[in-house]
C-alpha cells in the first residue's frame, strides 16, 4: 500500500506559545512517528503513522512538482509535531512545500484516494448537467446510455471505476449495472460536490 517509505526528519523546536494563535489545527502528527507516505498529486499526500489508527491527508499551499516521484521527504516543523501551519514545511528535492491543512481520514477514504490515481472517473448525469459543470478528469456517459455505450469504457474493466451524479442515486444505479456486466472494482462517490471534495479535482464547464 505504501510505496514511499524513506523519510528524513528535521524538527525546529520553538516555544509553543509563539504559535498558539496561528496553529489552530486539531489534526496533527508527530514527525518521528511517520512510517510512510503516498503522494496523490503535486499538492496532496497521505501520511501513515503506526501510532495512529487512521492516516492523515496533508494538503499543501503551493504546488510541488515532482512530489509524486520523490523517494524521500524532509519534514521541518516548528514543534515536535506537524500541524496546519504555514511554518511547517515539507522539503522535496526541488522546493519547500508549505502545509495548508492536515485532515485525519478513515482507511477506506485513503484507499479510494490512492485508487483514484489510476481510476476512471465516470459522470452519469445528463448532457445538460455535464455541460453546466463536471470534474476535470471525468468521462461522461449518461445513465440511460450506459449499457449501449459500454464499449467506451471496456478497456477499464480491470481498473477501478469511480461514479458520480448529482445526488448519488443515479451513480448507485450505474454501479449495479456495471457489476452486472462484470466490472468488479466500482465505487459510488455520490454527488458532484461530494466527488469534487473527495478527489480534489476542479469543476469545469463547457
TrEMBL record:
Q: InterPro entries under this entry?
A: DUF6491, GlpE_sulfurtransferase, Rhodanese-like_dom, Rhodanese-like_dom_sf
- Where in this chain does the record put each Rhodanese domain? 115-204
In terms of SUPFAM superfamilies, this protein maps to: Rhodanese/Cell cycle control phosphatase (SSF52821)
Q: Which SMART domains match?
A: RHOD
Q: What is this protein called?
A: Rhodanese domain-containing protein
Amino acid at each position: 500500500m505504501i510505496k514511499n517509505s524513506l523519510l528524513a526528519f528535521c524538527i525546529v523546536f520553538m516555544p509553543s506559545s509563539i504559535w498558539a494563535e496561528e496553529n489552530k489545527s486539531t489534526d496533527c502528527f508527530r514527525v518521528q512517528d511517520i512510517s510512510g507516505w503516498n503522494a496523490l498529486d503535486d499538492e496532496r499526500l497521505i501520511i501513515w503513522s503506526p501510532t495512529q489508527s487512521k492516516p492523515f491527508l496533508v494538503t499543501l499551499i503551493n504546488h510541488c512538482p515532482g512530489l509524486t516521484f520523490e523517494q524521500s521527504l524532509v519534514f521541518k516543523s516548528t514543534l515536535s509535531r506537524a500541524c496546519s501551519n504555514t511554518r511547517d514545511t515539507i522539503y522535496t528535492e526541488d522546493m519547500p512545500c508549505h502545509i495548508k491543512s492536515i485532515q485525519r481520514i478513515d482507511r477506506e477514504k485513503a484507499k479510494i484516494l490512492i485508487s483514484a490515481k489510476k481510476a476512471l472517473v465516470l459522470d452519469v448525469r445528463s448532457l445538460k448537467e455535464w455541460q453546466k459543470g463536471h470534474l476535470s478528469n471525468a468521462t461522461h456517459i449518461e445513465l440511460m446510455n450506459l449499457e449501449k455505450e459500454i464499449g467506451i469504457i471496456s478497456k477499464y474493466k480491470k481498473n477501478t471505476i469511480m461514479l458520480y451524479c448529482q445526488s448519488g442515486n443515479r451513480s448507485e444505479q450505474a454501479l449495479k449495472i456495471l457489476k452486472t456486466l462484470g466490472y468488479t472494482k466500482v465505487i459510488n462517490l455520490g454527488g458532484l460536490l461530494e466527488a469534487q471534495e473527495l478527489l480534489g479535482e476542479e469543476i469545469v464547464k463547457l
